[in-house]
Protein 1
Amino acid sequence: MEIIIKKDALSGSHAAARVVARLVCEKPTAVIGLATGSTPLMLYKQLIHLHKEEGLDFSKVTTFNLDEYIGLPADHEQSYRRFMNENLFSQINIKMGNTHVPDGMAKDVPASCAAYEQAIANAGGIDLQVLGIGSDGHVGFNEPTSSFASRTRIKTLTKQTVADNARFFGGDESKVPHHCITMGIGTIMDARMNILLAFGANKAEAVAATVEGPVASIMPSSILQHHPSAKLFIDEAAATQLKLADYYRWVYDGKPDWQKDA
């Protein structure tokens, strides 16, 4: 696990975008896993900038999103399909047929989840997965105690996650769906690289537990300690509870420039 501490969320997002851009340049047919929410927005804005200003080509890229609320149609203002269309897909030259988001309106949820897993396998697996982290350490919607072997499936959200996401529903928790479809932790761990973004003091405790705590299902993100290629991009505020923060800075600052984007 590589810990990359940047001054703020903007510089952290730019550093993460360089890793994604390098993959796309080196492998135009890359399969990329994507996340939603406020955390990856600056990453997506930077990728849009690289496409429009530097010609970063997404025409052969395939994407799979982590999750979707159950019961929200694709055109609902809070659906993750709509979020991705508005905040990334419509602003780059990706083929919409190559973008995949779980179907929150599936009549047969287990069958839909199995089909999603098969689609990932058929695409050759995920080369790079973008992740955020919840205040309780959840990744995707894999809430605390989720199995490390789990695959794409239905999950019930915790009260904390419902409360955290209420801001997207006008602050009304009653409007937040209580169920979702999410990639499993096993699915996430199958990605060849994972990059996790975490910004702000409210993520500091979860970041410290993820990086320096024991690997345990009560902190789902801690499993990334066992991933062969995991990069955490965090800002100074999110790094405040890390015991070895100075060491992580020293390691990253001493790397050659070419390796920082690898």
Protein 2
Amino acid sequence: MTQKLKDEILELLWSLRERGSKSYSKLIKDINDKNAPEVIIKMEKAGLISVTNDTIELNEKGEIRARDLTRRHRLAERLFHDVLEVSMEESEHTACEVEHILSPEVTDSVCAFLGHPPTCPHGKPIPKGKCCYKYTHDVKPLVIQLKELEVGSQARIVFITFLKDKSTRIEQLVSLGIVPGSIIRLKQKGPPFVLEIDETTLAIDTPIAEDIYVKKI
């Protein structure tokens, strides 16, 4: 139980930092466990974290563990929600359980299988692993970027990322009917990329095609 609580604290610290907070009191409030203060003291003695007044930060050792836990959790969410089509709530709950037991090798296999997704279903960034920089993995990705789909192939849009000009791209894609769950057929590789959705043919630029991830049908 103590180890699981330690992991939850480390993962929450990572998440809070993404939101610009290093508040000890905020962490305690969000973790909502009466044993948290005592466990935090032990974690500080173990060199995982540092606490100064109301500021709590990850040390190098804690940083590595927090990063790994976050990566496992968010990849698991992608696997359960996008590939196995489990509900968002159940995907989140199951990911919380498996993040503690996935080995580095299995984690990299899942990542490669999903096509090295940049974000989780909630849009939060997934920390990259070594496999993300070395595309020599034996596992063939199930989810790929639209630009990697073969011409003539049909696929379901699994998720869409927006790394730049977020609001503009969302409006543009929604207006074209390009949303997660849509079935598309790639008619031409870009530029431009020509897609067929239902009976509509659309042309999109390469930067947009790079934001769209699909699962071949």
